[in-house]
Design a protein that fits this description.
Helix 2 packs across helix 3 and helix 3 runs antiparallel to helix 4. The termini are far apart. The chain is an alpha+beta fold. The N terminus is likely disordered. Helices cover 35% and strands 31% of the residues. It is built from four helices and 13 strands.
C-alpha cells in the first residue's frame, strides 16, 4: 500500500474531485474512476497544463490509433482548489522535464478494472420502505416506553406519548426522506460523474396522487461500461416538462453506487422539498413538545 511518499523520495501528489482520484509519485500517474484505474508512466506523457477552469490537462504522447484505454489524447483532472491544481502540476512538470517521451505513449497505458462487488438480491421500492420501517419502529416504541416509565406526569404520560408517537411518525417519515435526498445530492455533487442517458419512464411521488412532480426512470452506461437500467432520479421534475417520460437527459451518477443518480437540480424540486419540509415540521414539533412534556428533568 502507498505510504504517502513517492518512490523518488518526494511527497505523493493527489487530486480528488468529481468521482476521480489522481495520484502521481514522480514516475507514474494513476487515475481511478469508479472500478477502473489507469496507470500512465511519465514516459508516456508529453505535456501538462492548467485549463481555463482550473483543471490539470495531461497529454499522452502519440496518436491514440487503435488504443482502447478510453482516455483519448489527454486526461483532464479536476482539482478541489487552485493550490492543489498548481502543486500537482508542478510535480508533473518537474518529472516531465527529466525524461524523453516514448513515440507511442498510448501503448504504455495500463488499465485495470475491479470486479463489481457481489450484491444481495435487490428489494423493490415497497420492500425497502417496509424493511426500514420494521427496523425503526421497535427501537422507537421502546424509547417512548422507557420515557413513559421515567415520566413524572403519571397517568397523563400514556396518552401524551401515544399522540406524540403518532405525530413523530407522521412528521418524521417525510423529513427522513428529505434528508436522504439532500444527502444523495451532496454525495453526487462531491464525487458524481456526468454522462448522457435516456429517460425510459417515470414514477409518481408516493405512487399515488402526487401527479405534479415525477421521478424519472433512467438508463445509462457508466464510464466503466456497466449498463444501468431503470435507475430512479433523485431530483423530481414537473410532470408537464419536456422529456418527462422519454428522450435523452444529462445526469450525474455516483461511481461508488451507480444506482444513485440524478437529473440536474430544478426549481420545482427545491420548491417541493421546502414545502414538504414545512408541512412535516408541524407534527414533528408536536412530537418534540410531547417528549419535552414527559422529560423527568
Amino acid at each position: 500500500m502507498s505510504n504517502g511518499r513517492s518512490i523518488t523520495g518526494g511527497p505523493e501528489a493527489v487530486l480528488v474531485r468529481g468521482g476521480t482520484t489522481a495520484r502521481f509519485d514522480g514516475t507514474r500517474l494513476c487515475v481511478a474512476r469508479g472500478r477502473t484505474t489507469w496507470t500512465l508512466p511519465v514516459r508516456a506523457l508529453d505535456s501538462a497544463e492548467l485549463t481555463r477552469d482550473g483543471a490539470v490537462r495531461v497529454g499522452i504522447h502519440g496518436e491514440p490509433g487503435r488504443s482502447d484505454h478510453g482516455l483519448g489524447r489527454a486526461v483532464v483532472l479536476r482539482a478541489p482548489n487552485a493550490r492543489a491544481a498548481e502543486a500537482f502540476l508542478a510535480r508533473l512538470t518537474a518529472a516531465l522535464a527529466t525524461v524523453e517521451p516514448v513515440p507511442d505513449g498510448h501503448a504504455l497505458v495500463r488499465v485495470e478494472t475491479r470486479a463489481p462487488a457481489r450484491r444481495l438480491p435487490a428489494l423493490g421500492r415497497r420492500g425497502r420502505a417496509a424493511l426500514r420501517i420494521a427496523l425503526a419502529v421497535p427501537p422507537y416504541a421502546l424509547a417512548l416506553f422507557v420515557l413513559g416509565l421515567a415520566s413524572p406526569r403519571g397517568s397523563d404520560a400514556v396518552p401524551s406519548l401515544i399522540v406524540g408517537g403518532v405525530l413523530g411518525l407522521v412528521g418524521g417519515v417525510p423529513l427522513v426522506r428529505v434528508v436522504r435526498r439532500v444527502c444523495s445530492l451532496w454525495l453526487l455533487r462531491r464525487r458524481g460523474i456526468g454522462v448522457v442517458g435516456r429517460v425510459t419512464g417515470h414514477v409518481h411521488i408516493w405512487d399515488k396522487g402526487g401527479h405534479l412532480w415525477l421521478f424519472s426512470l433512467m438508463d445509462f452506461t457508466t464510464v466503466d461500461g456497466e449498463r444501468m437500467r431503470g435507475v430512479t432520479s433523485v431530483v423530481t421534475i414537473w410532470a408537464f416538462s419536456p422529456g418527462a417520460d422519454s428522450g435523452q437527459a444529462e445526469l450525474v451518477y455516483d461511481p461508488e453506487n451507480p444506482t444513485r443518480a440524478s437529473r440536474p437540480l430544478t426549481a420545482g424540486f427545491v420548491l417541493r422539498t421546502l414545502l414538504l419540509t414545512a408541512v412535516a415540521a408541524v407534527p414533528t414539533l408536536g412530537f418534540l413538545d410531547s417528549v419535552r412534556y414527559n422529560l423527568p428533568f
